[in-house]
């Protein structure tokens, strides 16, 4: 009886392993709804070949046709998934496909940005949930091209280096949701290295912290993010925080530092102070 029970248990374990392996394989091999010839490469290189599920809950918004290939507005919203550990934004047909990685440590899994496109391409966002599955949403954007190989406009301004790394930002707090919406702009040429004679020079990372020094969100950006990058995120600072800290650097080591005041209320009777 003891041997039979052991064999039965081993059989159940093996069956569970086979089912789990089959499920993971099924998730990883779903057909691409955008039918991109580059999807297999994106899956392997950008997502490390991990389990993938094409998921309508990851909403990617972008214009159907890019009016300006140097500044294509894109927003990502993965809040319908619940807990999200990381969001990766990428464009299949770009010569440099990875746009950014976003880690919403104490923030909503949403981000808005502008990016450069070299040609018509799917633009995707992959949101990784705690179970290790990448949930992928995307849209197809038509573009005339040239966004990644054009030199930055900053190079036509002899004073651009004086303003390198300057940050303009504003924050809005919603008492109902508890989130603080932050929009920030960093002065930077964001050179891809694909324009003749101009090496790659781009903002690499930005961290957003509250007044206690707690990291709320981190953005790792890459060459295809638009010149003078603009990001919009929604974070949750600690109670009583009156400012947010922004810190980062570019690939040449230039430091980015800024402090953004938060609206605050001293009491229920006092107006919001800015």
From TrEMBL:
InterPro entries: Fuse-rel_SoxYZ, Ig-like_fold, Ig_E-set, SoxY, SoxY_sf, SoxZ_dom. Residues 235-274 are annotated as: Disordered. Gene3D superfamilies: Immunoglobulins (2.60.40.10), SoxY domain (2.60.40.2470). Residues 47-148 form the Ig-like SoxY domain. It holds the Pfam family SoxZ. This is Quinoprotein dehydrogenase-associated SoxYZ-like carrier. It comes from Skermanella cutis. Residues 178-260 form the Sulphur oxidation protein SoxZ domain. Keywords: Signal. Residues 1-28 form the signal peptide. The keyword GTP-binding does not apply.
């Amino acid at each position: 009886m003891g041997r039979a029970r052991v064999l039965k248990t081993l059989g159940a374990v093996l069956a569970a392993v086979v089912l789990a392996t089959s499920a993971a394989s099924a998730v990883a091999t779903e057909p691409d709804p955008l039918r991109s010839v580059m999807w297999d490469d994106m899956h392997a290189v950008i997502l490390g070949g991990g389990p993938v599920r094409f998921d309508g809950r990851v909403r990617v918004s972008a214009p159907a046709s890019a009016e300006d290939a140097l500044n294509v507005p894109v927003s990502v919203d993965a809040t319908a998934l619940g807990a999200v550990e990381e969001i990766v934004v990428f464009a299949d047909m770009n010569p440099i496909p990875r746009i950014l990685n976003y880690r919403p440590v104490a923030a909503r899994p949403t981000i808005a940005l502008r990016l450069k496109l070299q040609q018509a391409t799917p633009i995707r966002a992959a949101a990784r949930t705690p179970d290790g599955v990448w949930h992928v949403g995307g849209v197809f954007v038509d573009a005339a091209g040239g966004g990644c190989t054009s030199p930055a406009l900053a190079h036509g301004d002899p004073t651009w280096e004086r303003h390198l790394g300057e940050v303009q930002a504003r924050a809005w707090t919603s008492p109902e949701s508890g989130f603080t919406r932050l929009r920030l702009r960093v002065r930077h040429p964001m050179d891809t290295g694909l324009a003749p004679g101009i090496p790659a020079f781009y903002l690499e990372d930005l961290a957003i912290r509250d007044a206690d020094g707690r990291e709320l969100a981190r953005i790792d950006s890459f060459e295809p993010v638009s010149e003078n990058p603009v990001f919009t995120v929604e974070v949750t600072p600690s109670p009583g925080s009156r400012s947010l800290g922004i810190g980062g650097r570019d690939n040449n080591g230039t430091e980015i530092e800024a402090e953004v005041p938060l609206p605050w209320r001293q009491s229920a009777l006092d107006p919001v102070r800015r």
